[in-house]
Amino acid sequence: MKSKLPNLSTSIFSQMTGLANRYQAINLSQGFPEFDAPELLKKQLAHYSEQGCNQYAPSSGVAELQAQIAALIERKYEHVVDPASSITVTSGATEALFVAIQAITQVGDEVIIFDPAYDSYKPAIELAGGKAVHITLRSPNFRIDWQQVNLAINEKTRAIIINTPHNPTAKIMTAQDVAMLKALLVKHDLLLISDEVYEHITFDGHIHFSALKDKDIFSRSFIISSFGKTFHCTGWKMGYCVAPHDLAEEFRKVHQYVTFSSFTPAQLALADMLKEQSAHLDELADFYQQKRNILVNALKGSRFEVLTSEGTYFLLLDYSAISDLNDIAFCEYLVKEVGVAAIPLSVFYDSPPEDRIIRLCFAKHTETLINAAHKLCEL
Ligand code: PMP
Ligand code: GLN
Fold it and tell me: Any idea where the Aminotransferase class I/classII large domain is (predicted)?
């Protein structure tokens, strides 16, 4: 059979977690929290299932959850959205990204993405018959050259995908970035897919820009978030997309034939969680900033150069002073010989630069972070 995605193999996250398990290494590779989901969330999940809420939810989501998401958006971004027509609950941010891309990409369309880019964007664009146009960001600051973006836009360009706070670089878009982005979207009449799954995880006073904050940007945007990151439940695969009515309508046409609807008891449990324990979200940034500091401090005696993490639960390390291996070989060495699993940065690029950088996930218990750092300090 002729492959539709001939250049793809198993995702790096599955590969590295597989290796971490095989070699019993400390797994700081795939991004997922080591902590359990909040008690209330687990209790309510069981409760609603026992109450018999086990059949299909409405395709766009359970009304209670849509309402709670709208309340959160109003509280955090001072933006009032109509929950029924703008918010669609999805099976993780991955589904939302896939659906948004399918909904807007015609055969031959170009979609601009910034490398290093989260791994699901490009295959989703290609499955829609589109072409991913890569803008490469350079270490250590990974800042966007908007002049370069402007030059990459032509009559085939349909959309730009941004991700802030950014996986894997842990950088946050600045107010200046947002102004440049807005100018380009308006000038060239483009759509925006804004991947904001780490919206609650920002450090050192960095302010998260949400496309929900600006009416002109929102009018042409799909804003995507994930409950997995915020409530330590990545295995539930629950997320959502917020869009203006006309775009939400197109999104829903695709969503109804990808999954139709998402897990009903989880939707009801998440609605209760948002209603009763919204403080969890307000405390998340401090919680992860402490984790980041623990790891950064524990690595102080090492030969790694630590790059600044402004948000997300990731940290980049430059190992140029330690080894000449390329980053994939270095990660294999780390997992097999040192006992720590990490992700090589090059896999997030179409044309990888010659950097020697790896990504660590610090959504782990203090003991895990200290043990991993201890091993890394010996290199
Ligand atoms: N976008 C980014 C940038 C991510 O890091 C992730 C997951 N790590 C996702 C999307 C997918 O989120 P979900 O697990 O909810 O599908
Ligand atoms: N997004 C997570 C990461 O960056 C992994 C998600 C996945 O395993 N597909 O590590």
Answer: 25-371
Q: Name the residue range of residue 73's domain.
A: 39-275
Q: Report the nearest-CA residue for atom 1 of ligand 2.
A: 31
What pLDDT, in 10s, does the model give residues 231-249?
A: 999 999 999 999 999 999 9
Nearest to 51 by CA among 342, 301, 231, 272: 272
Query: Is the domain of 50 the same as that of 188?
Result: yes
For ligand 1, the distance from its centroid to the CA atom of residue 199, given in whole angstroms, is 12
Contact 136, 349 (CB under 8 A): yes
Shared-domain flag, residues 180 and 324: no
Q: Based on the structure, what is the number of domains in the chain?
A: 2
- Asked if residue 89 and residue 141 are part of one domain, the reply reads yes
> Is residue 168 located within the same domain as residue 21?
no
**Do the beta carbons of residue 211 and residue 195 sit within 8 Å?**
no
We report the CATH number of the domain holding residue 357 as: 3.90.1150.10
Residues 267 and 330 placed together within one structural domain of the fold: no
- Considering the entire predicted model, what is its pTM? 0.97
Q: List, for residues 257-315, the tens digit of each pLDDT value.
A: 999 999 999 999 999 999 999 899 999 999 999 999 999 999 999 999 999 999 999 99
288, two tokens:
């992860």
Residue type, 36: D
The two tokens of residue 120 are 């699901």
Mean pLDDT of 33-51: 98
Do residues 51 and 272 make contact, with C-beta atoms less than 8 angstroms apart? Answer: no
Tokens encoding 329: 């070989």
Tokens 């600044």 -> residue: 308
76 shares a domain with 26: no
Same-domain status, 353 and 231: no
Nearest CA to ligand 2 atom 3: 31
What is the whole-number distance in angstroms between the Cα of residue 351 and the centre of ligand 1? 22
CA of 363, nearest ligand number: 2
CA of 145 relative to ligand 1 center, distance in Å: 25
The predicted pLDDT at position 278 comes to 87
ipTM summary value: 0.97
CATH number for the domain that contains residue 146: 3.40.640.10
Residue after which a domain boundary falls, among 275, 295, 319: 275
- Mean pLDDT taken over the chain: 97
